[in-house]
Amino acid sequence: MDTYLVTGAAGFIGSHSVDYLLATGHKVIGIDNFYTGNIKNLDQALRSSEFQFLELDVTDEHGLAALFSAHKFAGVLHLAALVSVPESFSKPALNFKTNIAATDTVARLCIDNQCPRIVFASSAAVYGNSEILPNVETARPNPQSPYAAAKLSSEILLLTYTKSYPLEAVCFRYFNVYGPRQDPNSPYSGVLSIFAKNFQEGSPVTVYGDGEQTRDFIYVQDVARANCNALTAKRISSNYYNLCTNQAISLNQVLTLLHQYYPNVTPAQYIASRVGDIRHSRGDASRLQETFGISAQVPFDKGLKKLLAAKSP
Ligand code: UD2
């Protein structure tokens, strides 16, 4: 049975990916430093004898090296990151250390320990505020934040390593991922996690701007499946891929759906747009489909219902 390392295992996407890997018959070692992750997200995984968890910071090269010496990994799902765009402005050194240097560390350890593959969490943020939609991978990246620059740098580093070393790399440019376990408790949490929590509690939401901004929301299970597929597929092509649905929905449309489920919740309060907010975001999903033969399966209304059915964290 192959063993995979998942960094950022206690996070929102990490924990779903761990569950998916375990459910599909793999062994998993998960690490997290709990900066944004939560051990509760691993409740299900921790019941499996095929899962081991270690509290470890991905920037701790010695700790990671010991882990690579102790196990023979068939692949690494590298999700551990500073995930907030605003925080990457206020803590640029931490962004560099976590979102660039740690990627390099993980890649070098893979190379030195004959771990053949990395699947890396990149972001649609690398496109910046694009005039042309949908975003296609062939478009010129235009990062607007230290976070986006770090994700793009990591992509370049990994894909360059694949040219000279026995390493394969898949960089997934996640669009707006949503689903259960996404922490709603920060103003920079995913908008759907905040909206779901507020509607469940009967409190009004705040909309930044006129609510006509659109996003390509992808359900977390689709992301976990793609991660697992990229890690375990026999043959892959090292490259960067959008992970998206190519469907966009506006916040006002989301609110209309939510009001159908919770008709008594007070209407949203509209305030000024956030500085640097992107107006429209939508990704072209064809490269992923053509290479891996997979596409997002969960339509938005179904995913939203699943999110609402899950207990709010
Ligand atoms: C997402 C990612 C970010 C980066 C970026 C790339 C998340 C959480 N963030 O940022 O990491 O990859 O895409 O483009 O996935 N909003 C409200 N009310 C709220 C919260 C948000 O109106 O209470 C608005 C917000 O101003 C924005 C939209 O909802 O227009 C989506 O916000 P978000 O924070 O979920 O994600 P986004 O697209 O800014």
Automatic annotation (TrEMBL):
Pathway the protein takes part in: Bacterial outer membrane biogenesis; LPS O-antigen biosynthesis
Protein family according to the UniProt entry: Belongs to the NAD(P)-dependent epimerase/dehydratase family.
InterPro entries named among the record's database cross-references: Epimerase_deHydtase, NAD(P)-bd_dom_sf
Entries under Pfam families matching the protein: Epimerase
Species of the source: Candidatus Nitrosoglobus terrae
Residues of the NAD-dependent epimerase/dehydratase domain: 5-243
Protein name: UDP-glucose 4-epimerase
